[in-house]
Design brief:
The structure is a homodimer.
Chain A lengths: L3 E8 L12 E8 L7 E9 L3 H5 L20 E8 L9 E4 L6 E4 L5 E2 L16 H14 L6 E4 L7 H10 L3 E6 L2 H10 L4 E4 L5 H8 L4 E5 L4 H8 L2 E9 L18 H10 L3 E4 L9 H13 L7 E5 L4 H9 L6 E5 L3
Parallel strand pairs in A: 8-9, 8-11, 9-10, 11-12, 12-13, 14-15
Antiparallel strand pairs in A: 1-2, 3-4, 3-6, 3-15, 4-5, 5-7
Helix pairs in contact in A: 2-3, 2-8, 5-6
Chain lengths: ~350, ~350
């Protein structure tokens, strides 16, 4: 097999505030053919996820940032296009972390083979992948919802929030979702079985949330921050648990909000209400991956968990789709179909 | 036995900001003699604790506030002065919650008999009582210090902080204490065995704390808030645990500090560093009282835990001593000797 042309999308410059298309650039290069023990992977699906906004920044975090000029990172589902590795043959489909590009060379490290008969392969990037496991581990290990308790989650039509709410229901809790717009709100109640949906664009969002949580909030799965957090804050019950998974409303912030400084108010509430707030990333719970695959796999087969995908076609659409996602424009797990 | 004259100290008015002597008033009344099944208790020791500042406020909290005109509440060690209760005889000493007064009538509910041979009876208000158990449960159940980790606590010469640091040492951790002034700093290092002490009045407190925590901070036992929290914040390690026990620096606040609003900064750190913050009051861990009595009792006998008392004489001194405590004027567990 001859060398292949490989298109990549690189970080052109670090965004200040909201990312723009100018922060990305395309690059094309030739990829040599795989050597002994190597595999050539063709990207089928690229996952776009909010955490990538963090990687575009220089700020210290749990993972090292992408440097300007480097390729954007990301989870992928790929097909083996050529193999000189004993464990892989052309046509095998794998979960990989190849980033925003059409092809990649691999030595097989960190790959997981996917069985298309078990589930559509791209679910390994969504409900059966990192977002689903984020929901599962954060909600169950930190949130620990009990029957009759109230669980609130924002971005509730998204790949994490939708699973949070559905697992809350499975555990017998009341699930209240916050989402942007009527379509998403209808979807989470009518399709996913949430007990109530609040449109975060509604001017009386806080009042609506209070109405939807007559017994207060016992678990708030935090993935947005901002105005939603403010609305949730006063409704938190004693002993409420708050898994902190993301604060997407703040990812584009360049300065802190103007005052007063409400940190003492938060500390006071943590104390008086005996709140538990705990930040996590999914890999902190890597040991629970088998439990996750078993449980969520079963709930999917039983129809207790549903999911939705938002697919854009072609790698070149990734920057625009990613920028839109940070504004809540996607409806379901955002995927780029890079090839088929 | 005839009726006794009983002096009480009442909440005269709710403080705005720092309490002043004018917020308290004395009252004298006659107490009838105990009826069948009742005990007359003579207060020997009254405990003064920071949580009482909360009770003086109308704000909703885990306990109902004291109303103006009502007696100030508080833990006491009392002697049975007269008894028509089969389980108590004159001379028995009990732990009770009789408040700021010289005498009380009791039906025996909630009393615990104390054995003066086991430990000085007033330790039931300090190292072997609520403050000691606050330290024990908050540090061990939430902070979970491991050997070699760094534990930081403020008000480190006080009845809670001193026990936090000493238990941290027993568990093999590095204990760094923050206290007000050279005497207290010397005491916690030389007497209690802390690894380092920082004077919170020093202008370069944050730099000194950083120096004393070369490997960052794994457990911060929060009982003050304010400038200490600010200094601790940037030194917190990934996966740090923060039992939130009090924010005494803010108890007299009438407004929030001026901006910017640093709440998103805190949320961001909780997320990136995967912090656990959890508020608690000691009675949330009531089930651990036996473990506490066993362990701390043994550590006391072995000399692994030391304690210090700051005694003021006479009930009428309670308001002034209490006001001073909120400013850090006490040195050791603050007790009022009401009678002997």
């Amino acid at each position: 097999m001859p060398a292949v042309k490989n298109k990549q999308i690189l970080l052109a410059s670090r965004p200040v505030g909201e990312p723009s298309p100018a922060n990305f650039k395309s690059a094309e290069s030739e990829l040599r053919e795989p050597g002994e023990g190597e595999i050539l992977l063709k990207t089928l699906w690229l996952s776009l996820d909010p955490y990538m906004r963090g990687r575009m920044s220089a700020a210290k975090s749990y993972a090292k940032p992408v440097e300007p000029g480097e390729m954007m990172v990301g989870g992928t589902v790929s097909e083996v296009a050529a193999s000189k590795h004993k464990d892989y043959k052309p046509g095998d489909v794998v979960l990989s972390y190849d980033g925003w590009q059409q092809y990649a060379l691999s030595k097989g490290m960190g790959l997981r083979k996917l069985d298309p008969k078990q589930a559509p392969v791209q679910t390994a990037l969504g409900v059966l992948g990192m977002p689903g496991m984020t929901a599962y581990t954060g909600l169950l290990a930190i949130g620990q919802p009990k029957a009759k308790e109230t669980v609130v989650v924002a971005a509730a039509a998204g790949p994490v929030g939708s699973v949070v709410g559905q697992i809350a229901k499975i555990k017998g809790a009341r699930a209240v979702g916050i989402a942007g717009g009527k379509d998403k709100c209808d979807y989470i109640v009518k399709e996913l079985g949430f007990d109530a949906a609040i449109d975060h664009r509604a001017p009386d969002m806080a009042a609506k949330l209070k109405e939807a949580c007559p017994n207060g909030i016992d678990v708030y799965f935090e993935n947005v921050g901002g105005a939603v957090w403010d609305a949730v804050f006063s409704l938190l019950n004693d002993f409420a648990r708050i898994p902190v998974c993301g604060i997407v409303a703040h990812y584009n912030d360049t300065t802190l909000p103007s005052g007063p400084d409400r940190t003492p108010m938060l500390m006071g509430a943590i104390l008086r209400k005996r709140l538990t707030m705990r930040g996590f990333i999914v890999w902190d719970f890597a040991a629970q991956e088998k439990d996750f695959q078993r449980d969520v796999g079963q709930w999917l087969r039983e129809g207790k968990i549903k999911y939705r995908e938002d697919v854009v076609e072609g790698l070149e659409k990734a920057p625009e789709a990613f920028i839109g996602m940070l504004k809540g424009k996607n409806f379901g797990k955002l995927l780029v179909r890079v090839a088929s």
